[in-house]
């Protein structure tokens, strides 16, 4: 694959067995290396600061960091469940996974249903619901076994046996077991006897393959029982009385009646136990009951308690009485290591963990998060959720590359845990490359990051020049706190939340200001993955389409936090869009200065330009890059083309050059290569990338000109629609603007609306008194004006109410003949010598001229 897909010469394949060479090859040597790709894209990166997490200076930094965490008592050793690769013999974290990064480790309670000497351990996330159990579910299509577990005879699926062994249970040799459906088992705590019934939805690979049925509160159970009840002959064969399977309500919760699961299934129209919507129904019921539910009063001991409290109490009581056990399972599957092996959950002994469960550390993380700006804002809930559920995280492994744990060199800090605050290291990495790593003791980093110690004394003890120590301190103080951490949204459940925890502990006075999360990249609808070979390399894309076309496509197709779908046809289209833009710029540069004074079109264009500058700047400040490009590239280009169409041969070249001078500066962060070329052709000195960012020129804002253009565009659009309908080219088009009384009445109506006075009767009486015209004439006029006013913004409405608009002058000076390709004559409804053979002028409204086609 390396040769065929990534072009690695066959003679280099043996060297690829060295991880460091492998990394260096794809970072720097290959034509597909990310460094070459970044350079070809035109990104300005200070490569002096690059490093790898196995560089000796970085290892000293990690050692300093982990000594601080150890001193804070936040590294613990214990017995915990971890994701485990059987092939590598190591715990695995998210970066080690080929798939299943989103899978969480769930703790199931195994309720011990007894049948004589046998135990049927039913896995549940909700032990408090055992008071409503009506039966056990086993899958009739699954092979079950009887196996000795911790001295008891358990009945479980074949798939459960190795899982139990990995999780620390003493497991004997399994023997095939034939399930006797219809036989009864005893429910723990309640001692109630319930039957074993068949159900296809039971997954043998999920926990033990044995499930308790609580139809009042579990949608899967309700649906499966209803299917079985529709087979009375089958129930008779099993010797089961349907009356004994009626749901029993355990929990009262706001928004639901007696049986929440039944209600949710009926509301969603679910009919069968294989309906995928059952997952959503289950999630809704469980969330509502856990958050707001209360155990009903009839339940002994636990009645009246909140579900969230009762869950833990029931679990602890069952465990203490030997009526339950614990088992761990993934929240989703498959989960596979990058080596290709399926990942299992293993309970490991003597493993080192970062104790994210520590209440004090959690509280510090919450405080840091509360002060941070998050992009997008809706990601905050995911960070809050992660901070709450994060507990002990395995931070070491026995094999692999990385930094030795400072408290035990037999362990290595794993890859997610050693890179939580490397942004601080970036500030000084270029200087550390000049130093002997052996000189980088903890006291050096204490001085650089905390300002502790005397630099003169530290220089003598470490052998590092005092000016170098001071320079490192200055670099750190200049760059920290970092403004924003940029990373992928899929890292919120681990890396990015670790980033918050570790900054809260190590840099409490230099906390990061924000985090920006990126979506995932997909290729023609499929998720990109370098390990699977399904990706578009930036380098190849630049070679095929050009750097600016790739940049424009990447930046304009979605906001940074949204998923991006690379499609070849769209990339090609973006390259053509750049060519059209360049041609437009060349056209502008070829225009001679005009001796004509600027008019309404120029006022409009310069006013629109100010709006585009403001919109682009505001969007950039919010990381809304797609919105910024929509305004600065696509919409501003529409404005310029609209101006050219409006003016025809009478364009003002000097005005367009003024626009271009601003436009190129707006676009330089997005398409820098093309902008530099145009900047040079404009005769400007230096680089446009170093030119000042455009600012809004308030004196060029002209809302009246923008309103006039909107009016003109609406007239052109209305006339064009009519011409399409009649399908005959007219000789003359006559446009009639409204009479003076209508304009006066219209302004008065808009004044009332601007003041929030919308009572029709009041407005009508005001118009009657002001104009002295009959109510029969004013009433329909008022209704039409109110209807049209719905399309006006508050700003436009206020402007028209205050100043009105000279519609006739705008239409006469607009070169409508050229724009519509037919002779256009403008009339006023009040004109003394009015030409109006069809009496159309009386239909004219303010902002809506009447039309007669001749």
Describe the structure.
With 854 residues, the protein is α+β, with helices and mostly antiparallel strands. It folds into four domains: 56-95 and 343-518, Rossmann fold; 105-330, Alpha-Beta Complex (Isoleucyl-tRNA Synthetase, domain 2); 547-701, Isoleucyl-tRNA Synthetase, Domain 1 (Orthogonal Bundle), CATH 1.10.730.10; 705-853, 2-Layer Sandwich (hypothetical protein PF0899 fold), CATH 3.30.2320. It is 44% helix and 16% strand. It contains 32 helices and 30 strands. The strands form nine sheets. Strands 9-7-8-5-4-15 form a six-stranded mixed β-sheet. Strands 2-1-17-19 form a four-stranded antiparallel β-sheet, with no helix packed on it. Strand 1 (75-85) and strand 2 form a beta hairpin. Helix 3 packs parallel to helix 19 (538-545). The longest helix has 24 residues, at 703-726. The protein is globular. The model has no long low-confidence stretch (mean pLDDT 92).
């Amino acid at each position: 694959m390396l040769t065929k897909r990534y072009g690695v010469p066959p003679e280099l394949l043996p060297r690829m067995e060295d991880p460091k060479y492998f990394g260096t090859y794809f970072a720097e040597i290959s034509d597909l290396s990310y460094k070459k790709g970044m350079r070809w894209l035109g990104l300005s990166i200070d490569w002096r600061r690059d490093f790898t997490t196995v560089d000796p200076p970085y290892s000293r930094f990690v050692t300093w960091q982990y000594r601080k965490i150890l001193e804070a008592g936040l590294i613990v050793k214990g017995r915990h469940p971890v994701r485990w690769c059987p092939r590598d013999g190591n715990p695995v974290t998210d970066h080690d996974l080929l798939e299943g990064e989103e899978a969480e480790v769930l703790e199931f309670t195994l309720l011990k249903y007894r049948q004589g000497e046998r135990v049927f351990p039913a896995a549940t996330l909700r032990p408090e619901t055992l008071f409503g159990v009506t039966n056990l579910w086993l899958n009739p299509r699954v092979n079950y076994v009887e196996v000795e577990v911790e001295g008891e005879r358990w009945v479980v699926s074949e798939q459960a046996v190795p899982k139990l062994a990995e999780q620390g249970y003493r497991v004997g040799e399994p023997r095939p077991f034939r399930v006797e459906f219809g036989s009864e088992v005893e429910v723990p705590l309640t001692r109630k006897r319930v039957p074993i019934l068949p159900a296809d939805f039971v997954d043998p690979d999920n926990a033990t393959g044995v499930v308790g049925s609580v139809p009042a509160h579990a949608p899967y159970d309700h649906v499966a029982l209803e299917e079985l009840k529709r087979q009375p002959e089958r129930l008779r064969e099993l010797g089961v009385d349907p009356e004994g399977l009626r749901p029993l309500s355990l929990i009262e919760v706001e928004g639901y009646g007696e049986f929440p699961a039944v209600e949710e299934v009926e509301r969603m129209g679910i009919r069968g136990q294989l309906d995928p919507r059952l997952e959503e129904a289950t999630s809704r019921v469980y969330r509502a009951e856990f958050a707001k539910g209360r155990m009903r009063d009839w339940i002994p001991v636990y009645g009246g308690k909140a579900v969230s409290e009762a869950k833990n109490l029931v679990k602890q009581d069952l465990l203490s009485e030997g009526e339950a056990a614990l088992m761990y399972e993934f929240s989703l599957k498959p989960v596979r290591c990058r080596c290709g092996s399926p990942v299992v959950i293993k309970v490991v002994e003597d493993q080192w963990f970062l104790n994210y469960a520590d209440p004090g550390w959690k509280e510090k993380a919450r405080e840091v998060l509360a002060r941070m700006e998050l992009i997008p804002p809706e990601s905050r809930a995911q960070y809050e959720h992660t901070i709450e559920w994060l507990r002990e995280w395995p931070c070491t492994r026995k094999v692999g590359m990385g930094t030795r744990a400072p408290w035990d060199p037999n362990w290595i800090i794993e890859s997610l845990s050693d890179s939580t605050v490397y942004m601080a290291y970036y500030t000084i990495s270029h200087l550390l490359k000049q130093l002997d790593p052996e000189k980088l003791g903890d006291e050096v980093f204490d001085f650089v990051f905390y300002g502790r110690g005397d630099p003169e004394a530290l220089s003598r003890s470490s052998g590092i020049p005092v000016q170098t120590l001071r320079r490192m301190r200055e670099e750190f103080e200049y760059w920290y706190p970092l403004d924003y951490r940029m990373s992928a949204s899929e890292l919120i459940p681990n890396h990015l939340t670790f980033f918050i925890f570790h900054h809260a502990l190590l840099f409490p006075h230099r906390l990061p200001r924000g985090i920006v999360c990126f979506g995932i990249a997909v290729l023609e609808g499929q998720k990109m993955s370098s390990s699977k070979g399904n990706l578009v390399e930036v380098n190849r894309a630049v070679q095929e389409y050009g750097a600016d076309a790739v940049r424009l496509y990447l930046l304009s197709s979605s906001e940074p936090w949204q998923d991006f779908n690379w499609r070849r046809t769209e990339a090609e289209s973006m390259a053509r869009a750049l060519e059209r833009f360049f041609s437009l710029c060349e056209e502008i540069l070829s225009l001679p200065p005009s001796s004509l004074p600027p008019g309404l079109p120029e006022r409009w264009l310069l006013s629109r330009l100010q709006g585009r500058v403001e919109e682009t700047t505001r969007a950039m400040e919010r990381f809304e890059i797609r919105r910024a490009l929509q305004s600065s590239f696509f919409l501003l280009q529409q404005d310029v083309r609209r101006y050219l169409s409006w003016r025809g041969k009478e364009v003002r070249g000097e005005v367009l050059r003024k626009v271009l001078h601003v436009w190129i500066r707006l676009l330089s962060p997005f398409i820098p290569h093309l902008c530099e070329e145009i900047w040079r052709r404009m005769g400007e000195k230096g680089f446009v990338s170093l030119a000042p960012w455009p600012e809004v020129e308030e004196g060029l804002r002209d809302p009246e000109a923008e309103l006039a253009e909107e009016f003109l565009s609406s007239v052109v659009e209305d006339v064009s629609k009519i011409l399409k309908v009649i399908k005959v080219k007219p000789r003359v088009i006559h446009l009639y603007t409204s009479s003076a009384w209508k304009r006066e009445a219209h302004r008065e109506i808009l004044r009332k609306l601007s003041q929030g006075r919308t009572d029709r009767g009041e407005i009508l009486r005001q118009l009657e008194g002001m104009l002295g015209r009959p109510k029969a004439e004013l009433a329909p006029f008022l209704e039409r004006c109110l209807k049209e006013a719905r399309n006006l913004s508050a700003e436009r409405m206020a402007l028209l109410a205050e100043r009105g608009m000279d519609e006739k002058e705008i239409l006469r000076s607009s070169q409508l003949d050229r724009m519509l390709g037919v002779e256009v004559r403008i009339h006023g409804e009040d004109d003394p010598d009015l030409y109006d053979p069809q009496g159309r002028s009386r239909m004219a409204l303010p902002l809506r001229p009447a039309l007669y086609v001749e």
